[in-house]
Structures are given as C-alpha cells and as structure tokens.
Structure prediction request, 443 residues.
Amino acid sequence: MPKPATSPFSEILKGNVKNELQELDAPVHRWWRFVLAYPPHLVSQYLEEFGCEGPKCVVFDPFSGTGTTLVEAKRRGCHAVGMEALDFCHLASTVKTTWDTPIATLETAAEELLEKIASDFARYGFFSAGGSLFETHRNAARPVACALALPAAQEKLLGKGYISPRPLQKLLVIQQHVLALPPGPVADFFRFALGSAAIPSSNVGFGPEIYRKKAKADEDVWACFTDQVEMMLTDLRDVQTRPYGPSRVHHCDSRDLTSLGKLKIDAVITSPPYPNEKNYGRITRIENLITNCIQDGADLKRLKKRLLRSNSQNMYQGDEDDLFVTKFASVQKVADEIEQRRLDLGKTSGWERMYAKVTRHYFGGMYRHLLTLKPLLNRGARCAYVVGDQMSFLMVHIRTGELLAELADEIGFKVEKIDLWRERWATASKVTIREEVVVLQNR
Ligand SMILES: C[S@@+](CC[C@H](N)C(=O)[O-])C[C@H]1O[C@@H](n2cnc3c(N)ncnc32)[C@H](O)[C@@H]1O
Prediction:
C-alpha cells in the first residue's frame, strides 16, 4: 500500500493549543470531560473539511466517549449518531445531546429535587457554612447521623480513599432522590449531573492516569451538584435558541453495528481507544458507581467485555478478535517483537504476558469494526480516525495509524491521507510519538 502523504492541514491542527484550552469551557462540552477526550475544534475542522452540514448529513461516532463529535455535529445541524459501550459515557453522550427537553420542565424538576435533597442535607447537618448560592438552606439545630453507605460490592470496586466518607454520604443522599425519579430524559439529566459532580466531590486526580490526591475530610457537595445543574441549564437555554440537528446514541459495542439497522452514514469522526494500558472502566469508575451504572463485579465485567481489547486488564477467555488479523504480517511483526522483548527482559507478570495478545486483539477488534461499518457508509463517505502511536508495551513502538490504514485498505477503503495532529518526543526511547488522523473514504 502506498504511504499516504501527510497533509498541510496538520499544521493548523497542531498549532491550535491555545484554542484547545479555551474550548474545554465551551458550552455543553464542559458538562463532563475526561482526559482522553479530543478538543471540539479538531472535530469541527473535519466536519468542515468533509462538508458536513444540515440534518441530511449523518455523522457517526462509534466511540463517542464524552460526546465531543456528537455535540459539534448537532450544533452544525447534522444528524448525530453515536455509539458507546461504557454505561456512564453512554449516559453522558446521551444527556449532552438531548437538547429538546423544555427548560421549564427541567427547572420545575430541579426545584422539586433540590428541595428534597436540601431537607435531608439540613437534617444531617450537611450544608457547608458560607459560599453557597443557596444560603437560604440551613442545617437543623440538632442534626441526626446519616446511616447511608455504599453497598459492600460497590465499596470494594471504589477502592480506599477515592472519596472521603462524609462527601460520599452527601453524594448518596443526592443519589437516593435522583434514582427515585421516573425513568426518562429528566431523570437522566440529573443522574448525569450527579456523576459529574462526584468528581470535584472526590479525591481523584488525573495525570493522565487516575490517582488519589490527599484526602479531604469534607467537600461542599451541595455546591458541586447545584453548580453543575445550573451550568447545564444555562447551556441548554443557550443551545435552544439556535437550530440544531437530531441525535441518538446507541449503547453498544462498535465491533458489531447491527443495532444501526439500515442507517446510511456520510461521515465518521472518532477516536477509538489506543493499544496501551489506559483503562476506561477505571478512569470512569466513580461516575459509574455513584450513578449505579455498576453495582458489582459482575456488572463491571459485563461492561468491560463490551470494550475493544486495548489493555491487559481487559482480556477474557474466548476472545477471538485476534483471528481477524492473522493475515497482517505487520500486526504479527509488532506483536512478536513485544513478546520477544518480554522474553529478553525476563518479564513474567500476568499483565506483561498479555501485551502481545492485546496488540493482536486490538487490531482484530478494529478490523471487525471497520468491516461492519463499511456497508453502512454512503459512497464517498469520509472517516477520520484519531489514533496515537504507542510504546506502553515494553517500549515497542506501535504505529497505530499506519497499521489501521493498512487494515482499512484491505477492507476496501481508500486511505486518503494520514494527518499529523500532534507529536511528542519520548526521551527514554528517543523516538517521536505521533498522534494522527487517519482519513478514509468509502469507495
Ligand atoms: C478515546 S475515547 C473517545 C473520546 C471521545 N472522542 C471524546 O472526545 O470524548 C474512546 C471511547 O471508546 C469507548 N469504547 C471502547 N471500546 C468500545 C467499543 N467496543 N464500542 C463502543 N465504545 C467503546 C470507551 O469507553 C471510550 O469512551
């Protein structure tokens, strides 16, 4: 396969760092982000390049995460269709693209909900003194002890120290009232707000892996939740003043797109997981637990099994994605190199033994995804896959973009180009790690 030229467009993308920072505060996007989300401007530049405009243009993001592509596509009036396997990410993508709930309905529901929560907060003496917009609420003169606790199975999954006991109880009070709402978009709105508010209420930091910061004894959880709700209402009031496109987010595994039925897609803009040790189940653990998306270990396993095999903690007996890439010498070569490096270094842990397998399963999973996508694409449809080179597996360089382009080419896509999005110098290994956008066209 001829190596596609890197387009000059990449320079624009690369130089946009300032813009990227400002965009984290952009309406709707700011409702919830995670470290592995890409910036909205990256999406909007490809929507522009692909000529996506209006409701007849179907834009699909098969790995929708925090919903960046969907929000941008919807803002341009396109028909935004997403797919996401992780429960809280699916909830986030859905709520961030549900713009047609009447504001008055949400305001009334918010008033009723906050009144109930406030009454419990007062009873338990949970209000912090000062600083809150809701100064009208005061703790009871003789607060009673709160007996709410995370069920044992969830506590085990949460791990020690990620949320201090008092903020956790406050979150559980909110949870009780939110989960009592009748199912539907209004309940989803507040459940998502609760999941988002759990992060500032907790002791977690991201760097980019999730870690425990110094535990804080208490936190103004009331303010975290009400600020979140207020911000969401403010942004909704704003987006509702302009036209926007329809949207739908499927809660499925993108290695099998049968749930899309006969949908015809004009553009794909997406960022799948990369073959590295990033663990999406772990990164979003608090949100998934506090919103009851995960209730026990079995739930977590069910959820993780739907994910692309991209890290060594997410491999299962019976996995067969590797069979799809036995014919690709380049994939086999890099996986063999990883295994050989492991043997040379005498690494014997269970995780390290998985690295070569993960690599095969990862590319096999992406192959399956592209295979099931192709028939759903309109002729000439264009796809942008944002992927990064990786060296997480014993420093062996995995050129993700190049390998993905090779799989796509074999399936029958035209590989238009591979844009360089950004790059960093890896000092230890003395190589440049590229994050690229593989641009494909359906022939
Ligand atoms: C790199 S993130 C996407 C980030 C997204 N572009 C954004 O801006 O938020 C990859 C997402 O793919 C999801 N995912 C992983 N495997 C999946 C699968 N087989 N099907 C659907 N979603 C999957 C992960 O849960 C994660 O949210």
